[in-house]
Amino acid sequence: MLERNEQDSSSDTPAEEMLVTDDDNAIPSQFTGYWIYHSKDEAYRWGLPEYDASNIGKWMLFYHRSRIDAVWKKIKLGIDAGDLWHAKVSGINPSKKTHAIMVYTPDFHDLSDVVRVHDALVTNELKNGCLRYKTDNQTRAGIYSGGKECPWIYSSDMIEELRLKSKEDQSTKTRTFKH
What we know:
Low-confidence stretches: 1-16
CATH topology: RNA Cap, Translation Initiation Factor Eif4e
CATH superfamily: RNA Cap, Translation Initiation Factor Eif4e
Helix content: 25-40%
Number of helices: 5
Shape: globular
Radius of gyration: 19 Å
Number of domains: 1
Number of strands: 7
Structural class: alpha+beta
């Protein structure tokens, strides 16, 4: 849901002067606003009530400024291909050398979709350390790293552990009887 700094999409204001933009030409390593968004889903982009905001969540990725433009380009390709739903990337913060990318899913309860998006990120070599998945409710509640509450509900480590457990369970179920 785009909120512009008193500007609309037909404005002649350069992307660098906007707090938030969905300009496909905006470059994260050069954007001085807060967020650049990319989505093919018009309903979500403009805040139409087709999605329950309390169910939305996101995979959080963090990259050094030297890599962010190439990574963002891959994320946009994934969205354009329909493999990813919606994402945003942070602009330049002079006090940090890293950028954040949030890759969203419409419903954090839909674990198969959450895992599907995780796998798309891994397959496209976008996993940079352990990925964490957080709900937008956690963000709105101010739950961040370093606080009292765990700031994520899923992680790539959890998914891998569940896969290993599932394989172990399958191997015990498919044993043959010996005479």
